[in-house]
Write a structure and sequence with these properties.
Blueprint (H helix, E strand, L loop, with lengths): L9 E3 L7 E3 L3 H7 L6 E3 H12 L6 E6 L4 H18 L5 H9 L17 E5 L16 H4 L12 H16 L5
Parallel strand pairs: 2-4
Antiparallel strand pairs: 1-3, 4-5
Helix pairs in contact: 2-6, 3-4
């Protein structure tokens, strides 16, 4: 698939809105495996501000990752594909790619390398990440399925936090 840049500029998330917090913690950076650039396309930035303003006052959006190098997107996808293939010998390639795509976007359609996607969760006003039922970036095996938005077996607090987050993001035009 050929790509054509839309020409929309990248915007730094840092300082964009008081209820947007970027996660520059050593734990987040170690988990990502690189030092991220917290920037998004201008349209994404506008939607982030709208989402932050749509939250109840006791919450903030915590940005875990945004702009990601294309080479890293490819690495994440291929690493996950190798894991799926190893765990499912004989699985047809198209099915392995489909399973991989449930957790990592294929590099040929991923939004992160263009600044068009964010990884986000909720935090309190002091920047403490809230428990939405599983750790950030925990896959379906480690989370026992809790990483999926439609997971039914959440505790009431995690379910409420997810509802707050999803309502704010969907109200701003984001899709999961």
């Amino acid at each position: 698939m050929s790509l054509k840049d839309c020409g929309e500029p990248l915007v730094s998330i840092d300082g964009l809105h008081p209820r947007l917090t970027i996660d520059e913690s050593a734990t987040n950076i170690a988990g990502l495996g690189y030092s991220p650039t917290f920037a998004v396309r201008k349209g994404v930035a506008h939607r982030l501000v709208h989402a932050a303003e749509g939250l109840p006052l006791s919450y903030r959006l915590l940005i875990k990752e945004s702009l990601r190098p294309a080479s890293l997107q490819k690495f994440y996808f291929e690493r996950r594909l190798r894991k799926i293939t190893a765990e499912n010998p004989g699985l047809p390639e198209d099915e392995a790619v489909a399973l991989t795509s449930r957790f990592v976007a294929p590099p040929w359609v991923a939004g992160h390398p263009s600044g068009g996607a964010i990884d986000v969760t909720l935090c309190d006003p002091n920047g403490r990440e809230l428990d939405l039922g599983c750790a950030y970036d925990e896959d379906e095996t480690a989370s026992k399925g809790a990483c999926f938005s439609s997971f039914d077996d959440l505790g009431s607090v995690a379910r409420e936090y997810r509802s707050v987050l999803f309502h704010a993001l969907e109200g701003a035009g984001f899709v999961n």
